[in-house]
Amino acid sequence: MALPPSTAASQPAHDDLKERVRDAIDIVDLVGTYISLRRAGKAMVGLCPWHEDSRPSFQVNPERQTFRCWVCNVGGDVFNFLMRMEKVEFREALEQLADRAGITLARGRGGLPADQKTALVKALGWAAERFADCLERSPEAKAARDYLQDRGLTPETIKKFQLGYAPAGWDWLLRQAATAGIPADHLLRTGLAVERQDRSGQYDRFRDRVIFPIRDPLSRCVAFGGRVIPGGAPDAAKYINSPETAVFSKSSMLYGLDTAREAMGRTHRAVVVEGYTDCLACRQTGIDDVVAVLGTALGERHAKLLRRYADRIVLVLDGDDAGRRRADEILDVILSEPIDLRIARLPAGVDPCEFVLERGKEAFEALLDEAVDPLEYRMDEAVARLAGRSGDDAALAAVESVLKPLAQVSTQSALSPSQRQLREDQVLGRLSRRFGLSREALRSRLHELRVSRPDRATEAARTDADGGFAPVAVTKLPAWDREVLEVLVGVPNSVGLIIREVDSAELESREGRAVLEAARRLHAEGRPVALSGLLLEILDPALQSLLVAVDDASSDRGTTDPIERLQHLEDALRRRSAQRQAHASATALKSSRLDPGSEAALLEQLVSQRRAIQGMTDSQGGMTEPKDG
Fold this sequence. Notes:
Elements: H1 12-24, H2 27-32, E1 38-40, E2 43-46, E3 58-61, E4 66-69, E5 74-76, H3 78-86, H4 90-101, H5 114-137, H6 142-150, H7 155-160, E6 164-166, H8 172-180, H9 184-189, E7 193-195, E8 202-204, E9 209-215, E10 221-228, E11 239-241, H10 257-267, E12 269-273, H11 276-284, E13 290-292, H12 300-306, E14 312-317, H13 321-336, E15 340-345, H14 352-359, H15 361-369, H16 374-386, H17 392-407, H18 417-435, H19 439-451, H20 456-460, H21 479-490, H22 495-501, H23 510-524, H24 530-537, H25 541-556, H26 562-591, H27 596-619
Parallel strand pairs: 12-13, 12-14, 14-15
Antiparallel strand pairs: 1-2, 2-3, 3-4, 4-5, 6-9, 7-8, 9-10, 10-11
Helix pairs in contact: 1-4, 3-4, 11-14, 13-16, 14-15, 16-17, 17-18, 17-19, 21-23, 21-24, 21-25, 21-26, 23-24, 26-27
């Protein structure tokens, strides 16, 4: 069985590094930096950080180096805990924990050595300080200070977000870098400087602009946005951003996210605007869950990022033609991502900064409350375009403006198959009601559009597109699946027996099969299985939580003695083998035409097999009676 991408095996060398980092971190120390823990027997307990917890339901097991919340039904190791707390992907968690442990990673993101990445981030932080100091103190920055004042931003907001100014000179930052001992190459690689075409030297990228530092979710400056001073060079672009670098990707970052995460956790909402000053004006009036895109449209990567922190995204757009076009583009995102996305439209000619500063927080919140989903917006626009037109062709064009992006939703999207089907049914139902067309006709046309997709053949060749796993309680696992998982995580010496004797097809649950296949990979590579090895191999959070819960449930029943657990498994394997033989005998007795002697012998054999099974069951006290077959 092919595993989903989320559970794919890592390279052995990378797994060695993961194990080194994990072994160097004490989970009690890590968790203790976020929540208060107290000892309860052999475990440490505290209030869960992910739900309203009045009595400690969060438990840390120092011996196994795992955590689990009994209410949320989540658990895992140090990596999984940090990923949940900081809302970061595995790579970021690995980097943070490696830094905490003093372990140097050979390669950073984008193949950049870790020490070089650190040096670039340090250079960017230095530049942010130089720009901010220039805005505050330099006479050259008066026009920039006046612009920010005219936009309604207070000195407190300017200082809090470290806004700055880049003077008009061609090498102002380069000269300061030379004095500070920062190589020009660092400025080139971070996009702060640009190589001259004739290769005779470099010049500053940002000149005579207000500077907005762009920070990653860990509040490290990784890029800059620059806004031209009003009245400046007439041919200059209004905004420029740092280029893509080893530490910055504008399609997967958002301005202000580092300081909006906590507010998003409270409101379960992310408000997205298009300009830096729009974001800052909202923050200034007390709306703290606001971020801004970085010169791009809101895309799938942005939606995936925000989905870590919020349940709903509200995109605030200008009421002009450009805003209308961007609203149309957003439908592609909502159809591909399991998130509630809404569009709030401003009056024509007004941007969010002006609106919130002139009308106040309550008026802006009311605008957000009235936001509609992109599908409703597009249908409204389609109906508006039908005004003055008639005939089936006009109606079909309006309907297809919705069906086409629906047909483009990939089976590799973040939506599970059931979510995709539900989303599709919802869209077709709303189209049917709005345009008076039958669901059958709409579904037929959707099928035609989907079949004609140019990437359909490529996508069909991909394996196991079911996506990740949904959380499942231990008690919901089939009995045999639970038996196998308990022994895998608790009895390291059992793995050889399980891999020899248990076929994946014998397990009823998808979760059980995924864990068994992960154990096979670990065993084949000569790596330890047990709980610790499986948590490193399997990155899906739901499967990690299940494994910790299985281990806890086994311990609670007092079945932790390895010899006893292994004996119990061997007995169960013999019982299942006998049941299969009995089932085969019963089938042969029913379906075959035998002479009286052969029939009697087969019947006697079947009775003997049934008695043997009953004896095995009785000797085990009736525990874990598996199904026939």
